[in-house]
Amino acid sequence: MNISQTIDNETGARVVTAYELDGVRTARFMSFLIDYVIIGILCIPLAIVIGFLGIITLSLGWLLYPFLVPAVALI
Fold it and tell me: What is the pTM of this model?
């Protein structure tokens, strides 16, 4: 594998080639989907807990549903 370094004349920085970026977008997209699925799976038990909490508190606990996904993503 012979990768020559190309230097930009204006900044003097090394130029990133398309060969070096091959597969990066696919890997990042797949990791995004995996994170999305993990957060979705973790939301299921907490949604059940909030549902029972809503029954116990006469529907006051259901006000926590809008904060469920952001809270799971931050944890």
Answer: 0.71
